[in-house]
Design brief:
14% of the residues lie in helices and 24% in strands. The protein contains three helices and twelve strands; from the N terminus they run βββααβαββββββββ. The strands form four sheets. The chain has a four-stranded antiparallel β-sheet with strand order 9-6-11-12, with helices on one face. The longest helix has 19 residues, at 110-128. The chain is globular and about 65 Å long. The chain starts with a strand and ends with a strand.
Length: 270
């Protein structure tokens, strides 16, 4: 009897194996992957010499394909912003709707657009100094009123809420991070074609305009000192005179083009 016996067996078959990734992803159920081997060669050797031994080797040849799909993470749908939370201050809402072409005056003249935006900025400016403040705004950077502020605060990162930062609080009137008016306002409607481009706005906090021909030349401000914000340099407000009259909580705003004194318009409801 021969001292050793060699047996060679060649098999061609397809194997389907189930692999588990539970150790890596214990909380995610995974579908079984399907590797496929096109060819398998099996070699078996036996020896009669003590101590007896068994040697088994598997030689894989051909192609190996492994398919496994991980479950797709579904995006979390954010809560829709209620209609009541999208409210803006009255003149800001008019400007927004006019710009969108849905308001009563979609073709306001450039002069009246600047007046309307200046009034809008005055309303937002005053709100920014109140307890409700103006931390959260719409995509145009116009302040949501109280309902919108509360909604955005409860839904951080919501796509409808632009966060101006934690420094925007009622007590921060002129410090770092304080609310400021828009400094690049697009012109809409029929006036856009002839306009020189976006215009700028400036606001004086705790101040009010004089009336008549002195509207853009003189201001009444608490303590005789104006807290100027926005595009101040090159505006009419930059060189205006200021009288000491208590106007705490009020704002005097105007909009125009810096470097062009005659282009500025004071706030006026449209």
């Amino acid at each position: 009897m021969p001292s050793s016996l060699s047996l060679f067996l060649s098999l061609s078959l397809s194997l389907s194996l189930s692999l588990s990734l539970s150790l890596l992803f214990p909380s995610i159920p995974l579908p079984p992957p399907s590797p496929s081997f096109s060819c398998l060669s099996l070699s078996l050797s036996l020896s009669s010499t003590p101590p007896s031994s068994l040697s088994l080797s598997l030689v894989l040849a051909g192609s190996l394909s492994l398919s496994s799909s991980l479950p797709t993470q579904q995006p979390v749908e954010e809560e829709a912003m209620p209609a009541g939370a999208t409210g803006l201050n009255s003149e800001c809402a008019k400007w927004r709707d006019n710009k969108a072409g849905t308001g009563n005056k979609p073709n306001l003249s450039l002069k009246n657009q600047k007046k309307q935006m200046a009034f809008c900025m005055a309303q937002d400016c005053q709100q920014s100094m109140e307890a409700v403040s103006c931390r959260y705004t719409d995509p145009n950077r116009l302040c949501y009123t109280n309902v919108g502020q509360l909604f955005c605060s409860a839904h951080p990162g919501h796509s409808a809420c632009q966060d101006l930062g934690a420094e925007v609080i009622g007590t921060n009137v002129g410090g770092p991070g304080t609310w400021e008016p828009l400094v690049s306002v697009p012109v809409f409607g029929s006036a856009a074609a002839a306009a020189p481009g976006p215009y700028q706005c400036v606001c004086l906090k705790n101040c009010a305009h004089y009336t008549g021909s002195d509207t853009l030349k003189k201001y009444r401000c608490t303590g005789g000192t104006a807290i100027k914000t926005g595009a101040v340099a090159g505006s009419r407000a930059d060189v205006a005179s200021i009288a000491d009259v208590t106007k705490t909580g009020q704002c005097a705003c105007s909009c125009g083009y810096t470097g062009s004194a005659d282009s500025w318009e004071a706030q006026d409801a449209q």
